[in-house]
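Standup notes, structure subgroup. Blocker cleared on the 2-acetamido-2-deoxy-beta-D-glucopyranose input:
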Amino acid sequence: MVMKLVLLAFPAAVLWSSVVSAQSPDFAYYNLSLIWPASFCISAAKNCVRPIPKIFTISNGLCPTLQNGTALPPYDPVDNNCNYSPAAPGDMAKALKPIQRRLQKTWPSLSNGATNQLFWEVVWANQGMCSDYPQDPLVYFTSALNLAENSKYDPLKVLGVQPSSTTAYAISTLLNNVKKKVGFYPQISCSISSNKLYLREVRFCFKRAKPPTQLQDCPTTMDYVCNSVPTAQQNVIFPPATATISGHVSWDLLASA
Ligand SMILES: *[C@@H]1O[C@H](CO)[C@@H](O)[C@H](O)[C@H]1NC(C)=O
Ligand SMILES: *[C@@H]1O[C@H](CO)[C@@H](O)[C@H](O)[C@H]1NC(C)=O
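Run returned:
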C-alpha cells in the first residue's frame, strides 16, 4: 500500500513541478515601446507605410523584461517553456477581432512589407506568449492599448518638445522632461540615418501586474544606438511627420542640418 502511494505520488510530483515552473515566467516588469513613425520611415525609406501616422504608435507591446533591462526571450516549447500551452500566433485574427479598429489606429505595422495581421502575430510570438496573459491575447493587446491611448503617457505631451525640422534635442533634456511630467524615467531609443541620431522610440517601464498600470524608472535610459555616440553628441532629430519625400529626408530638413 505504501509502495503504491509512493509510485503514484512520484509522477504527480514531477507533473506538478513542471506545471508550476511553466506557469510563472521569470521577469520583473513590462516595457511598452511607443515608436515615432516619421523616424522609422526615414530609416525604412520606401518600405514604410503612407501616409505616415502623426501619433506615436505601439511597436513591441508590453515586453516582459528582466530587472537588468534584458527582454525575456520568445516562447519556445523546448528551450523557453515559460507558460503552459499559450495561445498560438495563428489564433490572433479571431482573438483580436473585437479591437481591430483600435489596433489599426494605435498599433499598425509601419512596414509596408508586413500586414497588420502578421505584425500582431509576431508581437504575440515575441512578447505575448511569455507575458502574464498566455491564454488571453485579447486582454494582453487591450492592456497595451489602454496604456498607449492614455494621454498621460503620450510622448507628444510628456517629452516637452514638438517635432521640428530645424532643432535637434538633447536626449538628457527629453528624459528629464518626461521624469518631471510622469515621475519616472523612460528609455529612449535612437536610430541613425546619414550619421544623424533620430528619436525612434520612447519606452515606458511598468511594474509587473495584471493589468500593468504603475510606472517605474527604466533601469537604463538610452538604448545602445543612442549610447553609441559621445555624450556631447547625444542630440536627436524628432522629425515632423511630413519630413520624408519618397524615402528621402525633405530638403528643408537637409538644409537645416
Ligand atoms: C541579465 O540577466 C540575465 C539573467 O540573469 C542574464 O542572462 C543576462 O546576461 C543579463 N544581462 C545583462 C546585460 O546584464
Ligand atoms: C524594452 O523592450 C525592448 C524589446 O522589446 C528591449 O530591446 C529594450 O531593451 C527594453 N528596454 C527596457 C528599458 O526595458
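Discussed briefly. Residues 2-256 form a domain with the Ribonuclease Rh; Chain A fold (CATH 3.90.730.10).
Next: hand off to the docking folks.
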